[in-house]
């Protein structure tokens, strides 16, 4: 989810400049982009799109009939003679774009968020930088079309997803405790302490989780708050539209909340900052990376304990103070 959100400004800019933009991504993320910006959407069927590390690197997927059918039947008609953009610096996607018939491919000099280099001969290379937000880095791909990024372009705007009655029904503080990687999770005892403090202040809370995350959400948040399972982007957008603010770990729905204009407190462990920082202007980030020698680190399974140590440094009073600041803010981005 976060990847597609970060590409919204690039896709919007290209579309407004007359470029026929064709997006290849998971079908579930279609609603994130307004239809007028996307000429064609190709539902991606690629092994590395899954969060399950057991499936992500299974070689049999790359030679399967399903994958070959996706590449040569579904993707190739839209890739022929096109300019391919791999916004992640991922050699697998570069190869995929060439297989689809792209006449040229642009990518980053490193796999995003890591120090893994892209072979110089693989494609047209843009220098990777992690000293800016992801959406700002993605705008550099406008160069592929002989133009420069417009300095007036702002971060992702997802207002088209807001529920029509959202202004009248902003009540609860949304809590987003789940993430696809264990190293991003915050301790249940602290989530429950935050809930206790919010209830003591007279605020209502609602826990939000994605498909198949209900069990962990219940473990993290306990029984003092309602928990809703969001099965789609539309469900997430509806639930967040009716929230007065959100507190969440580093995961796609937290970015969605931020880009819907909510006051957001984002709890960061070892995720690379400011690269992965939510783009909304009413977001506060709570993190202690300066106290962790290994941060930032790539979010692989064997780094999960490192991530957990970063997250454990975040305290309840910091989160509550950040929420108060986020609710009071109307402009600017604060980072704690």
Task: Tell me what the structure shows.
The protein has 2 domains: 2-147, 3-Layer(aba) Sandwich (Rossmann fold); 166-335, Rossmann fold (3-Layer(aba) Sandwich). β3 (83-85), α4 and β4 (104-108) form a beta-alpha-beta unit. The strands form 3 sheets. A 7-stranded parallel sheet has the order 8-7-6-9-10-11-12, sandwiched between helices. Strands 3-4-5 form a 3-stranded parallel sheet, covered by helices on one side. Strands 1-2 form a two-stranded parallel sheet. It is α/β, with parallel strands linked by helices. The two termini are 24 Å apart. The protein has 11 helices and 12 strands. α6 (188-200) crosses α11.
Compact description:
This protein has 336 residues and is of the alpha/beta class. It has helices at residues 2-16, 53-56, 65-79, 91-99, 134-138, 188-200, 214-221, 233-241, 252-259, 304-312, 316-328; strands at 22-25, 40-43, 83-85, 104-108, 124-126, 172-176, 205-209, 226-229, 243-249, 264-267, 283-286, 334-335.
Corresponding CATH superfamily of the largest domain: Glycogen Phosphorylase B
Question: How many separate domains?
Answer: 2
CATH topology of the largest domain: Rossmann fold
Radius of gyration, taken over Cα atoms and rounded to an integer in Å: 20 Å
Query: Distance between the terminal alpha carbons, to the nearest Å?
Result: 24 Å
Q: Could you describe the largest sheet, including whether it forms a barrel?
A: 7 strands, parallel
Helix content: 25-40%
Global structural class: alpha/beta
CATH class of the largest domain: Alpha Beta
Hey, roughly how much beta strand do the residues contain? 5-15%
In which order are the strands of the major sheet placed?
A: 8-7-6-9-10-11-12
CATH architecture of the largest domain: 3-Layer(aba) Sandwich
Helix segment tally = 11
State the order of secondary-structure elements, H for helix, E for strand: HEEHHEHEEHEHEHEHEHEEHHE
């Amino acid at each position: 989810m976060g990847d597609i959100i970060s590409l919204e400004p690039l896709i919007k800019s290209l579309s407004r400049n007359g470029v026929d933009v064709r997006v290849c991504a998971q079908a579930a993320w279609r609603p994130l982009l307004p239809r007028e910006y996307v000429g064609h959407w190709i539902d991606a069927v690629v092994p590395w799109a899954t969060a399950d590390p057991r499936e992500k690197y299974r070689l049999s997927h790359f030679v399967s009939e399903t994958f070959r059918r996706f590449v040569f039947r579904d993707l190739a008609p839209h890739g022929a003679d096109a300019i391919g953009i791999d916004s992640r610096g991922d050699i697998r996607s570069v190869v995929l774009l060439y297989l689809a018939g792209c006449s040229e491919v642009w990518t980053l000099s490193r796999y995003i968020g890591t120090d893994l280099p892209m072979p110089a001969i693989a494609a047209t290379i843009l220098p990777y930088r992690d000293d800016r937000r992801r959406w700002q880095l993605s705008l550099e791909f406008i160069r592929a079309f002989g133009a420069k990024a417009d300095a007036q372009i702002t971060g992702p705007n997802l207002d088209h997803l807001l529920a029509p009655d959202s202004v009248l029904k902003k009540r609860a503080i949304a809590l987003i405790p789940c993430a696809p990687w264990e190293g991003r999770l915050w301790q249940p005892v602290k989530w429950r302490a935050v809930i206790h403090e919010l209830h003591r202040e007279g605020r209502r809370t609602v826990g939000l989780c994605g498909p198949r995350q209900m069990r962990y959400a219940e473990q993290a948040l306990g029984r003092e708050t309602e928990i809703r399972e969001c099965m789609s982007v539309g469900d997430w957008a509806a639930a967040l539209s009716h929230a007065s603010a959100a507190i969440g770990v580093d995961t796609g729905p937290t970015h969605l909340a931020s880009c819907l204009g909510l006051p957001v407190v984002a709890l960061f462990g070892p995720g690379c900052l400011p690269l992965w920082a939510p783009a909304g202007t009413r977001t506060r980030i709570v993190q202690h990376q300066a106290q962790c020698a290994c941060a930032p680190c790539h979010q692989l399974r064997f780094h999960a304990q490192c991530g957990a140590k970063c997250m454990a440094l975040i305290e309840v009073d910091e989160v509550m103070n950040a929420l108060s600041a986020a609710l009071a803010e109307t402009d600017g981005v604060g980072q704690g």
